[in-house]
Specification:
Order of helices and strands: EEHEEEHEEEEEEHEEEHEEEEH
Shape: globular
Strand content: 35-45%
CATH topology of the largest domain: Diaminopimelate Epimerase, Chain A, domain 1
Radius of gyration: 19 Å
Distance between the termini: 37 Å
Structural class: alpha+beta
Number of domains: 2
Number of strands: 18
CATH class of the largest domain: Alpha Beta
Largest sheet: 18 strands, mixed
CATH architecture of the largest domain: Roll
Oligomer: single chain
Helix content: 10-25%
């Protein structure tokens, strides 16, 4: 059952900050409406995302409406660092804008992130479509990827790594078998490899057939995670470049599946679910200092 508490039903003082928690395939984010609430400082983000001392989350979304059909969004990892883009975060933000009545089902709108403007569409209450744009195989945050891979070592093992950017850096590794333990240990090391100046997300992928790929993820600034929208797109992009999959594929992650397709111009569309979990108010004194607008 989804638990949602209306804002006026929560006893809160003038200093309360209102968060709504959503998840997309088990990847959870706290949404904070930028039109009403300032962004907590980095220490506050770390505190509120902590599962023991805060609300618990894989990140924080701070954004809102600019004008009709246009929105802005900042995305933060639970360690307080800012992310360039997040596929799951964009779907969750789209659902939040729908819940607030800023967008309607079926209509396209645009979200400005740190790196690019992204076209989004609410298909239904629980189904969101996002145009993630073009994969980049040459970017300042990733090593150059031509037609081949390059080796990186972790835990005494050499991995053939395929770098790709979806606006944020990814390292894709194809394997015959997936192990969550290996992802947790090697992913942590590979994230911080000096080849990636801004660190990297790491995806271990097993190709099932041309229409389905199984993936496990180590997310930059978060750790082992049940799903990653941009990571799913990164795996799909590399698999397409290597002719390992068709123009449509299902990316299966521990938290669930995303449907991906590549348009004729090379842009990647992701479609998947979002669920609202709960809303609550937090004393702003608990969060510490807030960024000034």
């Amino acid at each position: 059952m989804n638990l949602h508490y209306a804002r006026n039903s929560i006893a809160s003082g003038a200093g309360a900050v209102h968060f709504t928690k959503y998840h997309a395939l088990g990847n959870s984010y706290l949404f904070l409406d930028a039109s009403e609430f300032q962004l907590p400082a980095s220490a506050g983000i770390r505190k509120i995302c902590d599962g023991n001392f805060g609300l618990g989350s894989d990140g924080l979304l701070h954004g809102g409406k600019i004008c009709d059909g246009n929105f802005s969004l900042r995305i933060f990892n639970p360690d307080g660092s800012e992310a360039e883009i997040s596929g799951n975060g964009l779907r969750i933000f789209s659902r939040a804008m729908f819940d607030l009545g800023h967008v309607s089902a079926g209509g396209e709108f645009f979200v400005k992130t740190a790196k690019k403007n992204v076209a989004c569409k609410v298909i239904s209450t629980g189904e969101i479509e996002v145009d993630m744009g073009f994969p980049m195989f040459r970017d300042g945050n990733i090593p150059f990827f031509g037609e081949g891979s390059f080796p990186l070592a972790a835990n005494g093992k050499s991995y053939e790594c395929y770098p790709v950017s979806m606006g944020n850096p990814h390292c894709v590794i194809f394997t015959a078998e997936l192990s969550s333990d290996e992802v947790r240990t090697s992913g942590k090391i590979l994230e911080q490899n000096q080849m990636f100046p801004e660190r990297t997300n790491v995806e271990f992928a097993k190709v099932i057939d041309r229409g389905s790929i199984e993936v496990e993820i180590w997310e930059r600034g978060t750790g082992y995670t049940l799903a990653c929208g941009s990571g799913a797109c990164a795996v799909f992009a590399v698999a397409k470049k290597l002719d390992l999959c068709s123009d449509h594929a299902e990316i299966q992650m521990p938290g669930g599946s995303l449907r991906l397709k590549m348009l004729s111009n090379g842009s990647i569309i992701q479609t998947g679910p979002v669920e609202r979990i709960a809303s609550c108010c937090v004393d702003d004194m608990y969060l510490g200092s807030l960024e000034k607008k």
